[in-house]
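Hi support team,

I've been running sequence recovery on a batch of backbones for a student project. Most finish fine, but this one hangs at about 90% for roughly twenty minutes before it completes. I'm not sure whether the input is malformed or the queue is just slow. I've pasted the structure tokens below so you can try to reproduce it. Let me know if you need the job ID as well.

Thanks,
M.K.
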């Protein structure tokens, strides 16, 4: 789907990161691992997150939390492996493939005001959750596209665990208004300190 959610809408809802080109990346960024203890942002705001992602996903029931966490863990594991230049674990690959195959889909031709367009019809009548299957499929397609997968990045802030898809090679922060701003402030403060007397 070509619809996206804005970073501003995600941040207004209490998610520091979001609005990436892939819902799979947005899902991975719903857990903050660089803090102790880690913070699962879906714990208190799951309904809000699913509502924000609604236009990007097939209809149907909101998936159970345990399944969401399992898929999120598999995607994060596979994304981190790609970023670090190593093969993903067999269990992460198996989980991704299982979720992707849990709800069959078929192409569908639709007639709209702008002419013909291809759409995807999900078949939840065969079991599984269409939302999770669609997210897993996105992750599989992203990881299997060498050009896009090469643009997966960790935020340059060592105190941040967010992952993003770098649209350009200059992007190093998950968000300019949080981690990027913190880096600019720290750089400014270092320049303002008087030189140590020796």
């Amino acid at each position: 789907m070509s619809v996206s959610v804005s970073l501003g809408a995600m941040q207004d809802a209490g998610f520091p990161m979001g609005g990436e080109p892939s819902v799979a990346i947005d899902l991975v960024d719903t857990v903050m691992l660089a803090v102790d203890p880690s913070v699962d942002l879906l714990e208190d705001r799951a309904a809000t997150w699913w509502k924000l992602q609604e236009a990007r996903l097939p209809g149907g029931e909101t998936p159970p939390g345990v399944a969401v966490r399992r898929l999120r863990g598999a995607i994060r594991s596979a994304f981190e492996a790609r970023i670090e230049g190593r093969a993903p674990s067999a269990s992460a690959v198996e989980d991704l493939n299982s979720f992707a195959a849990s709800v069959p889909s078929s192409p569908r031709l639709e007639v709209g005001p702008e002419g013909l367009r291809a759409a995807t019809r999900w078949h939840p009548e065969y079991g599984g959750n269409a939302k999770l299957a669609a997210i897993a499929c996105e992750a599989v397609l992203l990881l299997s596209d060498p050009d896009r997968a090469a643009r997966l990045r960790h935020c340059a802030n060592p105190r941040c665990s967010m992952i993003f898809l770098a649209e350009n090679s200059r992007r190093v922060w998950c968000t300019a208004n949080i981690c990027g701003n913190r880096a600019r402030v720290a750089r400014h403060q270092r320049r303002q300190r008087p030189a140590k007397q020796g």
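--
Follow-up from support: It reproduced on our side and the slowdown came from queue contention, not your input. The mean pLDDT is 90. No action needed from you.
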